[in-house]
Write a structure and sequence with these properties.
Length: about 240
């Protein structure tokens, strides 16, 4: 695992966006299209702001959605579809963005639909974060490290739901959905490159455990230790508990 530490969130986001642009450009040069996975959340703000102004032919870029709440209307401020439309789709107009419909009557069928699409392609880069409880996507501990299904329906644990309130997406715990559709751990790990963007002190303990302790479903992000091409982008605060 390659670890890079920056003085500020802005510097972190810019560096990750520069690296992402190189990967995207290379994929376009090789096969005239780049396939990406995009995360959401407060941790991705600076990265996405820097990414969408890169000199990229976005008409040759296809995105896949990482996760979405079950039953949350798209107009809700916490909707990841709303987030992605505002922060990526409306700003760069990519060729395609395969969104997860968390309001579909059958969440499992929604998993199959997007799963069938992503299974046809090699993902060039996954842009992800790490949750305060160590999750990647909405794979809360203990995460399922075994399923080969690209997308799964998951129950959100209390710490994950509290994080969403703490970040201001919801007014209180009662408002936070209890289930979500999430890209599976194994699907994330199939990406050629993983760019893991993790600023802020509140993520420091999760960063420490995923980097320094053994791989375990109790620490979902620890699985990144087994990927051959992952970069962890940290700021001074999120790296503050690392031994080195």
């Amino acid at each position: 695992m390659n670890i890079e530490v920056f003085d500020t969130k802005l510097a972190l986001g810019q560096a990750a966006a520069d690296d992402a642009a190189k990967i995207i450009q290379q994929a376009i040069e090789e096969r005239n299209v780049a396939y990406l996975i995009a995360a959401t959340g407060a941790s991705q703000f600076e990265f996405l702001d820097a990414l969408v102004v890169q000199n990229i032919d976005w008409s040759k870029v296809v995105f896949f959605h990482l996760d979405e709440y079950v039953g949350l209307p798209e107009k809700h401020p916490a909707s990841f579809r709303k987030y992605l439309r505002e922060r990526i789709i409306e700003r760069v107009q990519p060729r395609e963005f395969h969104l997860i419909d968390g309001e579909a009557a059958d969440a499992i069928e929604g998993c199959r639909r997007v799963g069938n699409l992503i299974s046809r392609h090699q993902i060039d880069a996954a842009f992800i974060g790490i949750g305060e409880n160590g999750h990647i996507a909405f794979n809360d501990p203990p995460a399922d490290f075994e399923t080969e299904e690209p997308y799964i329906v998951v129950d959100l644990d209390e710490r994950c739901r509290r994080q969403q309130v703490g970040e201001g997406w919801f007014a209180d715990m009662e408002e936070v959905p209890r289930r979500a559709i999430s890209m599976s751990v194994q699907q994330i790990m199939k990406a050629r490159n993983i760019l893991c963007i993790v600023p802020d002190e509140r993520k420091a303990e999760a960063v420490r455990t995923c980097v320094e302790l053994e791989v375990s479903p109790r620490r979902p992000a620890s699985i990144l230790q087994r990927h051959n091409n992952v970069t962890l982008y940290l700021d001074r605060e999120s790296s503050s508990r690392l031994a080195v």
